[in-house]
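Review form for a predicted model. The reviewer records the input and the model, then writes brief findings.
Reviewer: anonymous (R2)
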Amino acid sequence: MSAETLRIAIVDDQPVMRSGLAMIIAAHDDLEVVGEASDGREGVALVRSTRPDVVLMDIQMPELDGIEATRQLVERGAETRVLILTTFGQERYVFDAFEAGAAGFLLKTAEPRLIVDAIRTVAAGDALLAPQLTQQIIESYLAGRRQTQVPSEYTRLTEREREVLQCLAEGLSNAEIGRELFIGEGTVKTHVARILDKLDLRDRVQAVVFAHRHGLAK
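Model under review:
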């Protein structure tokens, strides 16, 4: 990502939450709020008109929830990255948001610096999984959905790519994967790109879901 200012949209039905997020963003010179919306329908229209780099999307909202709003944006080819903001007790909704095309999620209780870091991370093209919740969310929701048969496309991965996929499933960053496997971060990025291509996945969030769904995680 360049040094240009990142344009952010906020979609949340709670005015206090929107104001708080706007204040956090305003404190950083490289971030700018370009619009706010109070429900998913308004959010979709806002993203289409302002084309922000990142939209902070609540899940439970009137008119149109954040999951469906995310799905509509992705299906319409919006380049805006969706960062879901959620709370404890919404694991199944977060998983559905991943399938809809969200780039990542955070808890609404996250510290301001983590929210800012998350915005920059997804804007740079990476996906974000809150490490402390990755296992909890995916395992709890996939408990009844796990498919034991290894999909044919998995056989296309090299042994190293399978190791990287397992690390992704644990929620490790590229730097952490590099340290775990004793390879450079640039090499990790190359492996991740090849994994996504071979498995026909959009981003690393979908790779995590894929690994857990098919019982490929450690």
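Findings: Residues 6-128 form a domain with the Rossmann fold fold (CATH 3.40.50.2300).
Further findings: The chain has two domains: 6-128, 145-213.
Recommendation: see findings above.
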